[in-house]
Amino acid sequence: MSRKKTESAPQQDLFGGAPARPEKPVASGPAPLAFSFSKLSMYEECPLKYKFRYVDKLPEKPKPYFAFGNSVHAALEFFHDPSHEAAPPLEKLLSAFKEEWDAKDWREKGYSDPFRSDSDYQSGLKMLTGYYRKHHASFAPPFLVEYSTDVPVDGLLVRIIADKIEHTGGGELVLIDYKTGKDVKRSPDQLHMYQKICELDPKLREKLAERYGVPAASLRVRELRFYHVPSLKEYTFARADDFEIGLFWERVLRAAEGVKEGRFPPRPGDFQCRFCDFRSSCPVHAETSPRASQGLEELAAEYEAARGKAEALKIKLVAALKAMPGGAAETGSFSLKLKKGPRWSFRDREAVRALLREHGCYDRACAPLLSRVAELVDDESLSAEARRALRELAEPSETFEIELKRRRE
After folding, report:
1. Cβ contacts of residue 93 below 8 Å, gap of 6+?
2. Total domain count for the chain?
Protein backbone atom coordinates (compact mmCIF):
# COMPACT_ATOMS: atom_id res chain seq x y z
CA MET A 1 0.00 0.00 0.00
CA SER A 2 1.06 3.60 -0.49
CA ARG A 3 2.89 5.16 2.43
CA LYS A 4 2.88 8.80 1.36
CA LYS A 5 4.05 11.03 4.19
CA THR A 6 2.08 14.05 5.30
CA GLU A 7 3.91 17.25 4.41
CA SER A 8 3.94 20.33 6.61
CA ALA A 9 1.87 18.61 9.29
CA PRO A 10 1.21 20.97 12.22
CA GLN A 11 2.73 20.23 15.62
CA GLN A 12 0.08 18.76 17.95
CA ASP A 13 -0.40 19.23 21.66
CA LEU A 14 0.17 16.44 24.15
CA PHE A 15 -3.31 15.52 25.36
CA GLY A 16 -5.81 16.26 22.61
CA GLY A 17 -6.44 16.59 18.93
CA ALA A 18 -6.38 20.38 18.83
CA PRO A 19 -3.30 21.95 17.23
CA ALA A 20 -0.88 23.74 19.52
CA ARG A 21 -0.86 27.54 19.61
CA PRO A 22 0.86 29.09 16.59
CA GLU A 23 4.55 29.58 17.20
CA LYS A 24 6.92 32.11 15.72
CA PRO A 25 8.95 30.79 12.80
CA VAL A 26 12.30 29.47 13.92
CA ALA A 27 15.43 28.55 12.06
CA SER A 28 15.52 25.01 10.82
CA GLY A 29 17.23 22.66 13.26
CA PRO A 30 17.95 18.98 13.45
CA ALA A 31 15.27 16.64 12.17
CA PRO A 32 12.88 15.27 14.83
CA LEU A 33 13.70 11.85 16.21
CA ALA A 34 11.82 9.13 14.34
CA PHE A 35 10.09 6.99 16.96
CA SER A 36 7.60 4.13 17.18
CA PHE A 37 6.18 1.67 19.67
CA SER A 38 8.72 -0.98 18.67
CA LYS A 39 11.56 1.47 19.33
CA LEU A 40 10.07 2.38 22.71
CA SER A 41 9.80 -1.31 23.62
CA MET A 42 13.38 -2.02 22.65
CA TYR A 43 14.79 0.98 24.53
CA GLU A 44 12.89 0.02 27.68
CA GLU A 45 14.04 -3.60 27.31
CA CYS A 46 17.70 -2.62 26.88
CA PRO A 47 18.99 0.82 25.82
CA LEU A 48 22.25 -0.69 24.54
CA LYS A 49 20.28 -3.10 22.33
CA TYR A 50 18.48 -0.06 20.91
CA LYS A 51 21.83 1.52 20.11
CA PHE A 52 23.11 -1.61 18.36
CA ARG A 53 19.90 -1.86 16.31
CA TYR A 54 19.00 1.74 15.44
CA VAL A 55 22.18 3.79 15.90
CA ASP A 56 24.96 1.40 14.93
CA LYS A 57 22.57 -0.43 12.57
CA LEU A 58 24.09 -3.84 13.30
CA PRO A 59 22.39 -6.60 11.28
CA GLU A 60 19.78 -8.81 12.93
CA LYS A 61 19.25 -12.48 12.21
CA PRO A 62 16.04 -13.32 10.30
CA LYS A 63 13.28 -14.60 12.60
CA PRO A 64 10.82 -17.31 11.49
CA TYR A 65 8.03 -15.75 13.52
CA PHE A 66 8.49 -12.45 11.67
CA ALA A 67 8.20 -14.22 8.32
CA PHE A 68 5.11 -16.09 9.50
CA GLY A 69 3.45 -12.98 10.92
CA ASN A 70 4.19 -10.90 7.82
CA SER A 71 2.66 -13.53 5.57
CA VAL A 72 -0.52 -13.78 7.64
CA HIS A 73 -0.81 -9.99 7.76
CA ALA A 74 -0.41 -9.77 3.97
CA ALA A 75 -3.21 -12.30 3.50
CA LEU A 76 -5.54 -10.43 5.89
CA GLU A 77 -4.69 -7.13 4.20
CA PHE A 78 -5.83 -8.64 0.91
CA PHE A 79 -8.97 -10.15 2.48
CA HIS A 80 -10.09 -6.86 4.09
CA ASP A 81 -9.14 -4.60 1.19
CA PRO A 82 -11.72 -1.74 1.34
CA SER A 83 -12.30 -2.08 -2.42
CA HIS A 84 -13.88 -5.53 -1.90
CA GLU A 85 -17.67 -5.33 -1.76
CA ALA A 86 -17.90 -8.94 -0.58
CA ALA A 87 -15.51 -11.41 1.01
CA PRO A 88 -13.02 -12.83 -1.51
CA PRO A 89 -13.11 -16.63 -1.95
CA LEU A 90 -11.09 -18.73 0.47
CA GLU A 91 -8.83 -19.86 -2.37
CA LYS A 92 -7.73 -16.27 -3.03
CA LEU A 93 -7.10 -15.62 0.65
CA LEU A 94 -4.83 -18.68 0.86
CA SER A 95 -3.19 -17.72 -2.44
CA ALA A 96 -2.30 -14.29 -1.00
CA PHE A 97 -0.68 -16.04 1.97
CA LYS A 98 1.26 -18.39 -0.32
CA GLU A 99 2.49 -15.55 -2.52
CA GLU A 100 4.01 -13.71 0.44
CA TRP A 101 5.36 -16.94 1.93
CA ASP A 102 7.11 -17.97 -1.28
CA ALA A 103 8.84 -14.58 -1.65
CA LYS A 104 11.72 -15.98 0.49
CA ASP A 105 13.13 -19.47 0.91
CA TRP A 106 13.34 -21.17 4.30
CA ARG A 107 16.90 -19.95 4.95
CA GLU A 108 16.00 -16.31 4.27
CA LYS A 109 13.08 -16.65 6.69
CA GLY A 110 15.44 -17.84 9.43
CA TYR A 111 14.44 -21.51 9.67
CA SER A 112 17.01 -24.13 10.62
CA ASP A 113 15.57 -26.64 8.15
CA PRO A 114 12.86 -26.76 5.44
CA PHE A 115 10.63 -29.12 7.44
CA ARG A 116 9.91 -26.51 10.11
CA SER A 117 9.19 -23.98 7.40
CA ASP A 118 6.71 -26.36 5.76
CA SER A 119 5.07 -27.03 9.13
CA ASP A 120 4.50 -23.31 9.74
CA TYR A 121 3.15 -22.91 6.22
CA GLN A 122 0.53 -25.59 6.89
CA SER A 123 -0.30 -23.92 10.20
CA GLY A 124 -0.84 -20.64 8.37
CA LEU A 125 -3.23 -22.25 5.88
CA LYS A 126 -5.21 -23.81 8.73
CA MET A 127 -5.27 -20.54 10.69
CA LEU A 128 -6.53 -18.48 7.75
CA THR A 129 -9.13 -21.10 6.85
CA GLY A 130 -10.54 -20.83 10.37
CA TYR A 131 -10.52 -17.03 10.14
CA TYR A 132 -12.36 -17.14 6.82
CA ARG A 133 -15.07 -19.49 8.10
CA LYS A 134 -15.72 -17.24 11.08
CA HIS A 135 -15.80 -13.91 9.25
CA HIS A 136 -16.68 -14.29 5.57
CA ALA A 137 -20.47 -14.25 6.10
CA SER A 138 -20.34 -10.99 8.10
CA PHE A 139 -17.74 -9.34 5.83
CA ALA A 140 -17.95 -5.55 5.56
CA PRO A 141 -15.32 -3.31 3.94
CA PRO A 142 -13.32 -1.51 6.65
CA PHE A 143 -12.25 2.12 6.57
CA LEU A 144 -8.53 1.36 6.12
CA VAL A 145 -6.07 -1.53 6.28
CA GLU A 146 -2.33 -1.36 6.97
CA TYR A 147 -2.61 2.37 7.53
CA SER A 148 0.83 3.94 7.99
CA THR A 149 1.42 7.50 9.12
CA ASP A 150 4.14 9.70 10.62
CA VAL A 151 2.92 12.44 12.98
CA PRO A 152 5.11 15.19 14.52
CA VAL A 153 4.47 15.62 18.25
CA ASP A 154 6.66 16.87 21.12
CA GLY A 155 9.80 16.97 19.00
CA LEU A 156 9.31 13.42 17.70
CA LEU A 157 8.13 12.01 14.42
CA VAL A 158 6.00 9.09 15.58
CA ARG A 159 5.10 6.30 13.18
CA ILE A 160 2.27 3.83 13.54
CA ILE A 161 0.99 1.14 11.18
CA ALA A 162 -2.59 0.13 12.03
CA ASP A 163 -3.58 -3.30 10.70
CA LYS A 164 -7.25 -2.37 10.31
CA ILE A 165 -9.40 0.65 11.11
CA GLU A 166 -13.18 0.44 11.18
CA HIS A 167 -15.59 3.40 11.20
CA THR A 168 -18.61 2.86 13.45
CA GLY A 169 -20.35 6.12 12.54
CA GLY A 170 -20.14 9.74 13.58
CA GLY A 171 -16.37 9.85 13.16
CA GLU A 172 -15.73 7.14 15.78
CA LEU A 173 -13.07 4.57 14.95
CA VAL A 174 -12.12 1.09 16.13
CA LEU A 175 -8.45 0.13 15.77
CA ILE A 176 -7.56 -3.56 15.30
CA ASP A 177 -4.09 -5.06 15.61
CA TYR A 178 -3.53 -8.68 14.56
CA LYS A 179 -1.32 -10.99 16.62
CA THR A 180 -0.03 -14.36 15.38
CA GLY A 181 2.22 -15.44 18.27
CA LYS A 182 1.31 -16.98 21.59
CA ASP A 183 -2.03 -16.18 23.20
CA VAL A 184 -0.66 -14.24 26.17
CA LYS A 185 -1.95 -11.42 28.32
CA ARG A 186 -1.20 -8.16 26.53
CA SER A 187 -0.75 -4.61 27.73
CA PRO A 188 -2.73 -1.82 26.02
CA ASP A 189 0.41 0.33 25.73
CA GLN A 190 0.70 -0.13 21.95
CA LEU A 191 -2.93 0.81 21.54
CA HIS A 192 -2.41 3.91 23.71
CA MET A 193 0.14 5.10 21.18
CA TYR A 194 -2.18 4.27 18.28
CA GLN A 195 -5.08 6.16 19.87
CA LYS A 196 -2.96 9.23 20.52
CA ILE A 197 -1.35 9.38 17.09
CA CYS A 198 -4.56 8.64 15.16
CA GLU A 199 -6.37 11.48 16.92
CA LEU A 200 -3.49 13.87 16.15
CA ASP A 201 -3.14 12.80 12.51
CA PRO A 202 -4.41 15.42 10.02
CA LYS A 203 -4.07 12.96 7.14
CA LEU A 204 -6.42 10.50 8.83
CA ARG A 205 -8.94 13.28 9.50
CA GLU A 206 -8.91 14.19 5.82
CA LYS A 207 -9.46 10.57 4.78
CA LEU A 208 -12.35 10.22 7.23
CA ALA A 209 -14.07 13.33 5.92
CA GLU A 210 -13.50 12.32 2.32
CA ARG A 211 -14.73 8.74 2.77
CA TYR A 212 -17.75 9.24 5.05
CA GLY A 213 -18.55 12.93 4.76
CA VAL A 214 -18.23 13.56 8.50
CA PRO A 215 -16.44 16.62 9.91
CA ALA A 216 -12.73 16.01 10.30
CA ALA A 217 -12.87 17.39 13.84
CA SER A 218 -15.23 14.58 14.90
CA LEU A 219 -12.55 11.87 14.62
CA ARG A 220 -12.38 9.94 17.87
CA VAL A 221 -10.98 6.50 18.70
CA ARG A 222 -13.74 4.61 20.47
CA GLU A 223 -12.20 1.22 20.99
CA LEU A 224 -8.98 -0.73 20.51
CA ARG A 225 -8.62 -4.46 19.92
CA PHE A 226 -5.98 -7.13 19.74
CA TYR A 227 -7.13 -9.97 17.49
CA HIS A 228 -5.30 -13.24 18.16
CA VAL A 229 -5.60 -14.98 14.80
CA PRO A 230 -4.59 -18.55 15.85
CA SER A 231 -7.35 -18.74 18.50
CA LEU A 232 -9.80 -16.34 16.77
CA LYS A 233 -10.08 -14.40 20.05
CA GLU A 234 -10.56 -10.65 20.36
CA TYR A 235 -9.26 -8.66 23.34
CA THR A 236 -10.98 -5.29 23.59
CA PHE A 237 -9.73 -2.19 25.37
CA ALA A 238 -11.97 0.81 25.91
CA ARG A 239 -10.76 4.22 24.92
CA ALA A 240 -8.01 5.44 27.27
CA ASP A 241 -8.56 8.70 29.15
CA ASP A 242 -6.18 11.65 29.17
CA PHE A 243 -4.57 10.51 32.43
CA GLU A 244 -3.68 7.06 31.04
CA ILE A 245 -2.42 8.52 27.77
CA GLY A 246 -0.38 11.07 29.68
CA LEU A 247 1.28 8.48 31.90
CA PHE A 248 2.15 6.41 28.85
CA TRP A 249 3.47 9.45 27.02
CA GLU A 250 5.82 10.23 29.89
CA ARG A 251 7.49 6.90 29.15
CA VAL A 252 7.78 7.79 25.48
CA LEU A 253 9.40 11.14 26.22
CA ARG A 254 11.79 9.65 28.80
CA ALA A 255 12.94 7.02 26.31
CA ALA A 256 13.26 9.59 23.52
CA GLU A 257 15.27 11.87 25.81
CA GLY A 258 17.61 8.99 26.57
CA VAL A 259 18.13 8.37 22.86
CA LYS A 260 18.72 12.05 22.10
CA GLU A 261 21.24 12.37 24.94
CA GLY A 262 23.06 9.19 23.95
CA ARG A 263 22.20 7.25 27.11
CA PHE A 264 22.51 3.57 26.17
CA PRO A 265 23.45 1.59 29.30
CA PRO A 266 23.13 -2.20 29.06
CA ARG A 267 20.20 -3.74 30.89
CA PRO A 268 21.03 -7.45 31.13
CA GLY A 269 18.49 -10.13 31.93
CA ASP A 270 18.17 -13.88 31.45
CA PHE A 271 15.42 -13.69 28.84
CA GLN A 272 16.46 -10.69 26.75
CA CYS A 273 20.14 -11.63 26.71
CA ARG A 274 19.47 -15.25 25.76
CA PHE A 275 17.75 -14.27 22.52
CA CYS A 276 19.65 -11.07 21.72
CA ASP A 277 21.23 -10.85 18.25
CA PHE A 278 23.89 -8.45 19.54
CA ARG A 279 25.28 -10.58 22.36
CA SER A 280 28.72 -10.81 20.70
CA SER A 281 28.99 -7.00 20.67
CA CYS A 282 27.76 -6.48 24.22
CA PRO A 283 30.31 -5.63 26.94
CA VAL A 284 28.20 -7.47 29.54
CA HIS A 285 29.05 -10.73 27.78
CA ALA A 286 32.61 -9.79 26.82
CA GLU A 287 34.09 -12.78 28.68
CA THR A 288 32.05 -15.26 26.65
CA SER A 289 31.92 -13.37 23.36
CA PRO A 290 34.56 -12.38 20.80
CA ARG A 291 35.90 -8.91 21.62
CA ALA A 292 35.66 -6.10 19.14
CA SER A 293 38.83 -4.84 17.56
CA GLN A 294 40.83 -2.28 19.56
CA GLY A 295 39.82 1.31 18.94
CA LEU A 296 36.89 3.68 19.16
CA GLU A 297 34.18 1.00 19.12
CA GLU A 298 35.69 -0.81 22.13
CA LEU A 299 36.10 2.45 24.04
CA ALA A 300 32.44 3.29 23.41
CA ALA A 301 31.31 -0.15 24.64
CA GLU A 302 33.43 0.13 27.79
CA TYR A 303 32.04 3.59 28.41
CA GLU A 304 28.48 2.28 28.30
CA ALA A 305 29.39 -0.58 30.65
CA ALA A 306 30.89 1.91 33.11
CA ARG A 307 27.68 3.94 33.15
CA GLY A 308 25.70 0.81 33.96
CA LYS A 309 28.14 -0.04 36.77
CA ALA A 310 27.78 3.48 38.15
CA GLU A 311 24.07 2.92 38.69
CA ALA A 312 24.81 -0.20 40.73
CA LEU A 313 27.41 1.70 42.79
CA LYS A 314 24.88 4.43 43.50
CA ILE A 315 22.57 1.88 45.11
CA LYS A 316 25.42 0.71 47.36
CA LEU A 317 26.39 4.29 48.28
CA VAL A 318 22.81 5.16 49.20
CA ALA A 319 22.63 2.12 51.48
CA ALA A 320 25.95 3.01 53.14
CA LEU A 321 25.06 6.69 53.65
CA LYS A 322 21.63 5.87 55.07
CA ALA A 323 23.47 4.08 57.87
CA MET A 324 25.58 7.18 58.64
CA PRO A 325 24.43 9.84 61.15
CA GLY A 326 22.81 12.60 59.14
CA GLY A 327 23.40 10.71 55.92
CA ALA A 328 26.83 12.31 55.50
CA ALA A 329 30.43 11.18 55.65
CA GLU A 330 33.99 12.45 55.22
CA THR A 331 36.31 9.83 53.82
CA GLY A 332 39.70 10.21 52.20
CA SER A 333 39.51 12.94 49.60
CA PHE A 334 35.68 12.89 49.38
CA SER A 335 32.81 14.51 51.17
CA LEU A 336 29.49 12.71 50.69
CA LYS A 337 25.98 13.76 51.64
CA LEU A 338 22.69 11.99 51.01
CA LYS A 339 19.88 14.23 49.79
CA LYS A 340 16.47 12.74 50.47
CA GLY A 341 13.26 13.92 48.88
CA PRO A 342 9.66 12.68 48.62
CA ARG A 343 8.38 10.71 45.71
CA TRP A 344 4.65 10.34 45.14
CA SER A 345 2.53 7.91 43.16
CA PHE A 346 -1.25 7.85 42.66
CA ARG A 347 -3.48 4.81 42.16
CA ASP A 348 -6.98 6.28 42.15
CA ARG A 349 -6.66 8.21 38.90
CA GLU A 350 -10.29 9.28 38.72
CA ALA A 351 -10.16 10.75 42.22
CA VAL A 352 -6.97 12.66 41.36
CA ARG A 353 -8.48 14.03 38.16
CA ALA A 354 -11.66 15.13 39.96
CA LEU A 355 -9.64 16.84 42.68
CA LEU A 356 -7.42 18.71 40.22
CA ARG A 357 -10.41 19.91 38.23
CA GLU A 358 -12.22 21.01 41.40
CA HIS A 359 -9.30 23.27 42.33
CA GLY A 360 -8.64 24.52 38.81
CA CYS A 361 -5.19 22.98 38.36
CA TYR A 362 -5.80 20.02 36.05
CA ASP A 363 -4.09 21.73 33.09
CA ARG A 364 -1.07 22.61 35.23
CA ALA A 365 -0.58 18.97 36.18
CA CYS A 366 -1.15 17.47 32.76
CA ALA A 367 0.94 19.69 30.54
CA PRO A 368 3.54 19.00 29.42
CA LEU A 369 4.01 15.96 31.72
CA LEU A 370 1.77 14.33 34.31
CA SER A 371 4.74 14.10 36.69
CA ARG A 372 3.78 17.66 37.67
CA VAL A 373 0.86 16.22 39.66
CA ALA A 374 3.41 15.24 42.32
CA GLU A 375 4.90 18.75 42.30
CA LEU A 376 1.53 20.16 43.39
CA VAL A 377 1.81 18.26 46.70
CA ASP A 378 4.34 20.87 47.92
CA ASP A 379 3.16 23.83 45.81
CA GLU A 380 2.31 26.61 48.29
CA SER A 381 0.32 28.48 45.63
CA LEU A 382 -2.27 25.71 45.94
CA SER A 383 -4.66 25.82 48.90
CA ALA A 384 -3.71 23.84 52.00
CA GLU A 385 -6.96 21.91 51.70
CA ALA A 386 -6.15 20.82 48.15
CA ARG A 387 -2.59 19.80 49.07
CA ARG A 388 -3.80 17.83 52.07
CA ALA A 389 -6.44 16.02 49.98
CA LEU A 390 -3.84 15.26 47.30
CA ARG A 391 -1.48 13.75 49.90
CA GLU A 392 -4.28 11.49 51.09
CA LEU A 393 -4.59 10.11 47.54
CA ALA A 394 -0.84 9.62 47.17
CA GLU A 395 1.43 6.77 48.18
CA PRO A 396 4.72 8.30 49.37
CA SER A 397 8.08 6.69 48.87
CA GLU A 398 11.63 8.03 49.12
CA THR A 399 14.09 9.02 46.44
CA PHE A 400 17.78 9.69 47.02
CA GLU A 401 20.44 11.76 45.29
CA ILE A 402 24.14 11.78 46.17
CA GLU A 403 26.13 15.00 46.33
CA LEU A 404 29.79 14.12 45.76
CA LYS A 405 32.57 16.74 45.84
CA ARG A 406 36.33 16.27 45.82
CA ARG A 407 37.79 17.83 48.96
CA ARG A 408 40.60 20.34 48.75
CA GLU A 409 43.88 19.09 50.21
Report:
1. 75, 78, 79, 128, 132
2. 3
